[in-house]
Amino acid sequence: MQAPGFWWTPPDRPALCARLLWPLSLAWALGARLRALRAHPYRPGVPTICVGNLTAGGAGKTPMVAYLAARLAARAPHVVLKGHGGRLGREAPHRVRLEMDGPVDVGDEALLHAAAASTWVARDRAAGLRAAEGAGAGLLLLDDGLQNPHLAPTVRIVMVDAGQGFGNGRLIPAGPLREAVGPGLARADLAALVGPPPQRAACLAQWPLLEAMAGQGRLVEAELRPLETGLPLDGAPVVAFAGIGRPEKFFETLRAMGANLRLAEAFPDHHVYAESVLERLLRRARAEGALVVTTEKDAVRLPPRFRREVMALPVRLTPVDPGPLDALLARLLPEE
């Protein structure tokens, strides 16, 4: 599903739909409060970093977890996530095996993580943490789970998409928020604001709580930068498609690299591509003499026979000034 447009209207000018849905947002908040009151949070015996966000949809959680897994590789990190779209991990935690598991088994994000670190999918993420700990994890990385009352991580990192901020500032379904901005940021040890400089500046100006966190040394600014792949994109005609939280970010990256986008087609997050759709995209590319390009996350969901014809553009999270993140990791891992 795509997020409704009224979620991203300015907070001081809420759309009529947002105002009408306000009572349901109260019910959402009450449900979350009741779940928290009944929970018995699990606190692992090894350092645990939860990377989450306050809004529905993508805000850079997976790239941040990948960054931390690479940076802290010597700590034997294990990644734990729900495994959205996969059939495994529902009854018991499942350790991802790249040689056997596919996206229908464990989801797309788990496959990306498993290429670099031991990875578990578990609907019950507390059970997933226990399983990873029992398997010898020296550090646990949670991809999502910030609002899960059954988890008690050592530190919490809140990801913020600078292009969208916190939308209209309202709770689901009146807005995109999983929890209110104030309490959510207060629980965070660090916020990571991700996007190009103009978007980051605008987001800080719109949300004073983020600016206050920056003044406290609790905010790191970062960008998603493409890796050098040798793809001849500068000036090249490109047919692009993406099924991620915000496909337009991917298309913006391609344009910044000089690609001439003949088609930029967005799909819902975690979209499963029918072969007929992929055939249509390939026909359009042949007619345009264009390359077909998608994201790493989308590429792992493609049927094998299409993977040779579709190029994946990898991006990596890069802190602009890693100082606040360095300080947080130094407190968590004193000898790091």
Mind explaining what this structure looks like?
- With 336 residues, this protein is α/β, with parallel strands linked by helices.
- It has 13 helices and 13 strands.
- It has a 9-stranded mixed sheet with strand order 3-4-2-5-1-6-7-8-13, sandwiched between helices. Strands 10-9-11-12 form a 4-stranded parallel sheet, sandwiched between helices.
- Strand 9 (237-242), helix 10 and strand 10 (260-266) form a beta-alpha-beta unit.
- Helix 8 (197-206) crosses helix 9.
- The longest helix is centred in the N-terminal third of the chain and has 17 residues, at 22-38.
- It is globular.
- The chain starts with 15 loop residues before the first helix and ends with a helix.
Short descriptors:
single chain; 336 residues; alpha/beta; 4-stranded parallel β-sheet
Compute the number of strand runs: 13
Side-by-side strand order of the widest sheet? 3-4-2-5-1-6-7-8-13
Structural class category: alpha/beta
Count, helices: 13
First and last CA, distance? 41 Å
User: In terms of per-residue confidence, which ranges show pLDDT below 50 for 5 or more consecutive residues?
Assistant: none
Beta content: 15-25%
**Rg measurement, Å:** 20 Å
Overall 3D shape:
globular
Helix content range:
25-40%
Query: Could you give a short account of the major beta sheet?
Result: 9 strands, mixed
- Helix-strand sequence: HHEHEEHHEHEEHEHHEEHEHEHEEH
Summarize the structure.
The protein has 13 helices and 13 strands.
